[in-house]
Fold:
Amino acid sequence: MFRPDDFRLEDLERVTRQSEEAVQRLSGVFGELRAVKGEGAAAGGLVAAVVDGGGQIVEVTLDPRVMRLDSASIAQAVTEAVRGAQADAHRKNTELLREATGGEPPSLDPADVDTWLRDVANAMGAPWPDDHA
Structure:
């Protein structure tokens, strides 16, 4: 819990400096995150997919030989290639964030963010509303 009577000016300066460093690291990584491309392949390389850093499909490439497969197999291969590309982009994003934060990247899952905010509010002795939507 935050205790104002234990607060020192050096603490504020240290927290401010650490916050500024973190913001600089994170702002530098945003350009890199925008440039991330995830790649995936399936059906022995006959199907390839590329997604952006957000997991949105940029390109799907089909080797003409894939047309020898039935439609269900082609659909499955496209799905596998896209999922592989999304997993690759996620891995690259996580690594960039890990490097920028110097540790485990922050979770953007809404439940995790809510838990974190509740913990911060609790540590500061502030109430956290049950419904803050």
